[in-house]
Design brief:
heterodimer; A: alpha+beta; 15 helices; 32 strands; globular; B: 373 residues; alpha/beta; TIM Barrel; Arc Repressor Mutant, subunit A; 9-stranded mixed beta sheet; 17 strands
């Protein structure tokens, strides 16, 4: 190990949502004087508006800090911030792979929660040294000893000497900084061996092109080198190497074993630089890649359409721009009879979907219509073929299907014991299969269920929160596919199927959902010049029915006095409103009404 | 439009005893105002500006506000200015709006003396509670007194305004109002739905009042149509009914895209092919430098749009040949399937040269217009 290596510490911060991860990162930046207090913007690492608002980290980031320890020596700290949500589990695991240690932040008022546990296990799986940090000790309800006990009992790591801090008030942050030096190992690796660098993130910069964040395990890389991506064999010339300083990228001559930094090269799209891939030199390649690379696949699909059909081109551009920085977002053009031209988009999960939708609306000023999220079903056909279905409109008919399968998740729920009954009822309703339950202590339990993803995306998280007053936490991962009785539910307005409303549902659940949505359609479709029958069907069988009566009144009764212009304006406004309507067959519906129908705000 | 066609003249009188709870017209309580004299002079000034242009007028309409608050002298003063500036047809329709509580025999006699031959009385309802909720100052017997007075003074063309959709009103109470009025047999009846206009007291209190439901309101609309038709009135415009030959000439000018000049604050005009208006604020209007402003875009699609919107308010509807000669295109072309659909649904009729809304079509006319134009 070189002298340089001995003075590097690579670590990340992991936590359950809202336990103070980003605030702790801010304080570390501040205390290492990397950022003057006056320049501090709250939560420097979360520099997307959306991240700050939601208090979550969406993109992985890294930052290089320098710290003078009590022994008088100067250390380089590479803080790698990981996304904080189950949707981004794989990215989290790659970020962790780039580190030797992790600060595990635990809220002293909440204790260990589902994601604390999930993240801790992930860190342990990656052989990381875990350094627990108990946070929020400034709050009156803080229970430091309780948190310590939980860390030891539940996670099984010693916590008697772990720092107890208030990231908010900057209390005891020095303890954390010192512990990083003493407890987290320096990075190993052979500077003279063939290059092995792990890609843990990449993004597109308008000036630099694709910027790739890497951790060097062996060897050395410098500008002008010809690199090779080991998963694809693609080769690129390196333009620039450097480190991530708090206020931007800083070029350097070379990056060597143990270091964290960036490279830019003749890479066109972030899709070429897959997170988890290994970079080596074309002239002297490594024998094998770093372990653990896999392609990430979307789990949830939804149709996204511009509310104003004329903005299809804008939507495509916006999606392309987002994809520049988010290779896990996939999309392809799709046409709906009801909604016109749009895109079928694949996401890592529901949160990922929400984030993309919100960014499209906010950053690109688009009004969207999105169809109900769908999971990917696997269908074995009678002709022996197997197809993967990400769009309800492509679901085969009942007589074509031999067996249909749906994705099943392994879900971990941590909850105060008071709510166990309610959670079990909920999971039961959602076709959950109980696996086991462990009492964490007298007050909390960890429950494991197998749940269809189809049920989880149907408002499961909100239902869980409402039944547990927000105390329960959820984490899940794909377990596999399971045969299931699935049917496609269609809705007809005035005798015509509205493709955008179709969805796939567990057969027994079909009647309840059909009734509910038919009612919502009735509530939300404005009365028109004719009566509109609403029918829900499975195949040719009608299973629910409602009627929207014909409009009776829509008139400017008072049209006297000579002010014709005002009347005309009123009518023009009405006509303008009509333009925004989407034609579902012969029926006109506002985009808002369409979205209201799909809003999953009911438990059933 | 031919210059020789006689036009309409509207005179706006923007004061009342008290403003009604639903009113969003330009009007002020007369006791509060200090500019009454200035206003009358300003109107006359406006009228005089047309002097010498030889404009023929065959309808004069004093609206408000409450024009029946004008004194004998004020009224005579304005009418003098009118007669000096315009050529008044012998068969002129000369209407004054009247509030049952304000019009005295003396004043009415002098109005008639000046040429008034039609009065329009705002009754709204025969029921005390309904009148009260609207903030009206009169009751049914005040109305009957004025009605009989007008008749005794020889007025043979009376309009009565009724309203439905009033707080606390029911189908039954509205039927009683209609029945009482049919008995009196005025020549013309206007039946307007109450609209809650922003900024009015009624709008402000909308959460504390009980309005008829939309369905009840629809029922009332159809009830009026049915009862008045049976009583011999023709439903010649969405909200207007008349005995044969007593259709309001003045209002027909609005609906037939004919020319009219409006004088007074906030008054609108359509003259020399242009729509324009006076300012809405009284102080701006009284300012000697006050400018009229143009209220529309003047391209031809806009005109066609307006023409259809207005014509279809009338039972006689649109003349297809007139449309063709005005705009150089056939109205039906490109709209065939939509018109066929609307006809099949019972909202629209095409008979010979005429395209018109049915009684059912009247009440959803906005939705139909949105389809047609």
């Amino acid at each position: 190990m070189t002298e340089k290596q001995k003075h590097i510490r690579n670590f990340s911060i992991i936590a359950h949502i809202d336990h103070g991860k980003s605030t702790l990162a801010d304080r570390i930046l501040e205390k290492t004087r990397t950022v003057a207090t006056r320049d501090m913007e709250e939560q420097l690492l979360d520099n997307m508006d959306l991240e700050r608002e939601r208090g979550i980290t969406i993109k992985a980031r890294a930052i290089r800090l320098s710290y003078t320890a009590k022994n008088g020596e100067e250390y380089i700290y590479n803080l790698i911030d990981t996304p904080g949500h189950v949707d981004f589990g794989y990215e989290v695991s790659r970020s962790l792979k780039a580190c030797e240690g992790a600060l595990l932040v635990v809220d002293a008022t909440q204790g260990v929660e589902a994601q604390t546990l999930a993240n801790a296990y992930l860190a342990i799986d990656n052989d990381l040294e875990i350094l627990p940090v108990i946070n929020k000790i400034d709050l009156a309800s803080a229970d430091i000893e309780g948190a310590r006990r939980e860390i030891e009992d539940i996670i099984g790591i010693p916590a008697d000497e772990c720092p107890a801090v208030s990231a908010k008030n900057g209390l005891n942050i020095e303890d954390v900084l010192e512990k990083i030096t003493t407890d987290i190992p320096a990075p190993e690796g052979d500077t003279d061996a063939p290059l092995k660098a792990l890609i843990f993130d990449s993004y597109y910069d308008a000036y630099l092109g694709v910027v790739v964040y890497i951790r060097i395990f062996d060897g050395r890389v410098r500008a002008g080198d010809k690199i090779r991506l080991m998963s694809t064999g693609a080769e690129f010339e390196v333009f620039e190497v450097g480190t991530m300083e708090p206020f931007g990228l800083s070029r350097c001559d070379a990056l060597s074993a143990g270091e964290v930094g960036y490279i830019t090269a003749s890479i066109k799209t972030v899709g070429d630089t897959k997170v988890g891939d290994t970079i080596t030199l074309a002239s002297r390649p490594a024998d094998d890649a770093l372990p653990g690379f896999r392609e990430v696949h979307p789990m949830v699909y939804s149709g996204i359409y511009p509310a104003d059909g004329a903005r299809y081109g804008d939507l495509r551009e916006a999606l392309e721009k987002l994809q520049l920085n988010d290779a896990s977002l996939v999309f392809e053009p799709e046409t709906s009879i009801a909604l016109g031209f749009g895109f079928r988009c694949g996401f890592l999960g529901l949160l990922h979907m929400e984030i993309i939708e919100e960014r499209l609306e906010r950053e690109f000023n688009l009004d969207l219509i999105t169809t109900a999220p769908s999971v990917i079903y696997k269908v074995e056909l009678r002709n022996g073929e197997t197809v993967m279905i990400d769009n309800p409109s492509k679901f085969p008919t009942a007589d074509e299907i031999a067996t249909a399968y749906e994705p099943i998740m392994k879900a971990t729920i941590i909850t105060p014991t008071d709510y166990i009954g309610g959670i079990m009822d909920l999971c039961q309703e959602r076709r959950g299969v109980f696996i086991d339950m462990k009492y964490i202590d007298t007050e909390r339990a960890e429950i494991h269920y197998e749940l269809p993803l189809n049920e989880i995306i149907y408002d499961f998280f909100d239902a869980l929160k409402s039944r547990t007053k927000g105390y329960a936490s959820l984490d899940y991962e794909l377990k596999g596919y399971k045969a299931s009785k699935l049917v496609k539910l269609d809705f007809m307005l005035n005798g015509e199927v509205v493709d955008a409303l179709s969805f796939i549902v567990f057969e027994e659940r079909a009647y309840g959902r059909a009734r509910k949505i038919a009612e919502k359609l009735k509530e939300n479709i404005p009365r028109q010049l004719f009566e509109i029958p609403i029918q829900a069907t499975i195949g040719s069988k009608i299973i629910a029915r409602e009627t929207v009566k014909a409009m009776r009144k829509d008139v400017l009764a008072k049209c006297y006095g000579g002010d014709i212009t005002r009347k005309k304006k009123l009518l023009e406004k009405q006509k303008e409103g009509k333009k925004k309507m989407r034609k579902l067959g012969s029926v006109e519906v506002t985009p808002e009404a369409f979205m209201a129908v799909l809003r999953l705000d009911d438990e059933n | 439009m031919m210059k020789t066609d006689p036009i309409g003249l509207y005179v706006h009188i923007p004061f009342c005893v008290k403003k009604c709870a639903y009113c969003d017209f330009c009007s002020y309580p007369y006791e509060d105002i200090s500019w009454r004299e200035d206003y009358i002079r300003r109107i006359c000034c406006e009228i005089s500006a047309y002097e010498g242009k030889k404009i023929k007028v065959n309808s004069i309409f004093f609206g408000g506000g409450t024009p029946s608050l004008l004194t004998e002298a004020e009224f005579r003063y304005i009418v003098c200015a009118i007669k000096k500036s315009f050529i008044i047809s012998d068969d002129v329709e000369f209407t004054i709006e009247a509030n049952p509580k304000t019009l005295t025999e003396k004043n009415l006699t002098s109005y008639i003396d000046c040429g008034v031959n039609r009065i329009s009385i705002g009754l709204q309802s025969i029921h005390e509670n309904e009148l009260k909720s609207l903030g009206r100052i009169h009751n049914f017997s005040d109305f009957v007194d004025l009605y009989n007075l007008a008749r005794s003074l020889g007025i043979d063309n009376i309009n009565v305004d009724l309203m439905y959709g009033i707080p606390e009103q029911t189908k039954e109470s509205f039927a009683e109002t209609l029945n009482s009025l049919i008995e009196l047999a005025p020549e013309h009846i206007s039946v307007y739905g109450l609209m809650l206009e922003e900024g009015t007291p009624l709008y402000k209190n909308r959460d504390t009042i009980t309005l008829p439901t939309e369905d009840e309101e629809c029922d009332m609309y159809y009830l009026a149509s049915q009862k008045l038709s049976l009583a011999g009135y023709s439903h010649y415009e969405i909200s207007n009914y008349a005995m044969g030959g007593y259709e309001c000439r003045h209002n027909l000018k609005y609906w037939k895209c004919e020319e009219y000049i409006g004088v007074g604050v906030s008054a609108h005009s359509c003259f020399d092919g242009v729509r324009f208006a006076n300012p809405d604020g009284i102080s701006e209007y009284l300012d000697v430098n006050c400018k009229k402003y143009i209220t529309e875009d003047t391209d031809s699609t806009d005109k066609a749009y307006e023409y259809v919107m207005l014509c279809l308010r009338l039972a006689e509807g649109l003349s297809l040949s007139d449309y063709l000669s005005r705009f150089g295109v056939d109205f039906l072309t490109g709209r065939e399937s939509m018109i066929e659909r609307l006809c099949a649904l019972g909202y629209l009729c095409v008979q010979g040269d005429r395209l018109f809304l049915t009684d059912r079509g009247f009440y959803v006319s906005n939705a139909i217009l949105c389809e047609l134009i």
